[in-house]
Design brief:
alpha/beta; Rossmann fold; 2 domains; 6-stranded parallel beta sheet
Length: about 290
């Protein structure tokens, strides 16, 4: 068996083309979806990611505003800025790029953003809505992963999904979204004993640990769906994932590559959430 590769880059482009048409129709109604991104400091990875968001926003027609602040920005100044943006009707989505400098409380910042403008899907209210199966803004990377599998009509119901990694950004929420789709979910992490046993039992394996080639083809079940969330830079400067792609694709039924896999879907779902927020704020169901 050789796995079918799920290119998130292709699905992302298809979805952005649809969004472009939707935003055009919203603009005809006088509704312009607006996203404000706040970047603190000069972290190269964060700057690159923010530029990607701006480029994608421009493509689909979302108004994207970038506010760059120095790393020394006091926490209160950032919280005051968020409060101002919460009140601004033209802003439908607020995103504070993580990670933040050590002197700023990340959780306090996340909770300061209005749940109705939390297009990252990290606010406790939106997490609570997701946990209880309600419609809300879902975290972008997990939401993108679900869309990738659905695009291939991969059945999730009743499948054993194993998540390696328990971060609040990817691991925990993707497990909850899979549970909402009636999958049976196991979380593995640094304290898990006999992790290979769980990996070998997985119908759906999602790896998000940030360790180069943490999983290889010997570990996985024949016919498993393998989603690689890791992005690791190796010595020659290229990017690779948490899964050894070449060996894993010989066993898997579907697999995502790195790059061009999960990454492009994260920004795409951010745009989806921003457009959804704009429609909700203007009481628009469909366009």
């Amino acid at each position: 068996m050789t796995a079918e590769v799920i290119y998130g880059s292709e699905l992302a482009q298809s979805m952005r083309d649809q969004m472009k048409d939707e935003v055009s129709k919203l603009r005809e109604k006088g509704v312009v979806p607006g996203l404000t991104v706040i970047l603190i400091g000069e972290d190269p990875a964060s700057k690159s990611y923010v530029l990607g968001k701006q480029k994608a926003s421009n493509y689909v027609g979302v108004d994207s505003d970038l506010i760059s602040l120095p790393e020394s920005t006091p926490e209160k100044e950032l919280l005051d800025l968020i409060d101002q943006l919460n009140q601004k009707e033209s802003v439908h989505g607020i995103l504070v790029q993580l990670p933040l400098p050590d002197h700023i409380d990340e959780q306090k910042v996340i909770e300061a953003i209005s749940a109705e403008k939390d297009v990252d899907g990290f606010h406790p209210i939106n997490i609570g809505r997701m946990m209880t199966g309600k419609d809300t803004f879902f975290p972008c990377t997990p939401y993108g992963i679900i869309q990738m599998m659905k695009s291939k009509e991969i059945s999730l119901e009743g499948k054993h999904a194993v998540i390696i990694g328990r971060s609040n950004i990817v691991g925990k929420p993707v497990g909850q979204l899979l549970l909402n789709e009636n999958a049976t979910v196991t979380y593995c992490h640094s304290r898990t004993k006999d992790m290979e046993k769980f990996i070998q039992e997985a119908d759906i394996l999602i790896v998000a640990v940030g360790k180069t080639h943490f999983v290889n083809g010997d570990h996985i079940k024949e016919g498993a769906v393998v989603i690689d969330v890791g992005v690791n830079r190796v010595e020659d400067g290229s990017l690779t994932g948490d899964v050894d792609f070449e060996s894993a694709k010989q066993k898997a039924s579907y697999i995502t590559p790195v790059p061009k896999g999960v990454g492009p879907m994260t920004i795409t779902m951010l745009l989806h959430n921003t457009i959804k927020s704009a429609k909700k704020a203007n009481d628009i169901q469909n366009v």
